[in-house]
Structures are given as structure tokens and as C-alpha cells.
Predict the structure.
Amino acid sequence: MQLVKNGTPPNEPNTQTAPSTVKDRYLRLPDVEQQTGCKKSTVYGLMAAGKFPKNVKLTRRLSVWRESEIQQWIAGQSA
């Protein structure tokens, strides 16, 4: 029996899967405010208190938040 590069016979389907990669969107402050209902001062105050997801600095003047972390925070608020 001849095997192809990934170890499966040539006429059988490949059942190996690639590692899952989840692409997370970045949200800017207006998007965070819209999704959470919190204004800038509240977002930064909660961050300072450790009660809100930390932002990610993409550049010196651009901060964003991971959408998945914001969604988890929102879900935790209603629980």
C-alpha cells in the first residue's frame, strides 16, 4: 500500500484536521461603548480596577479590545 504525504492511503479521505484558528476581531473604543453601554470613563475605570478586559496597544495612539473578551465580560455581567 502506498501512502501519501500525510500518512493516508491515496484513495481514502483525509481525516486529519488542521489546528483550529479562531480569528478574533479588534474593537475600537466607540464599538466597545456601543456593545457594553459604558462610556470611556467607565471602561477605563473598570480596567484600572481589574474588572474589565485590558486593551491592546497596536500603536502609540491606537488601543483596541478583543471582541471575544468583551463578549465574555458582557455575558458575565448578566449572569
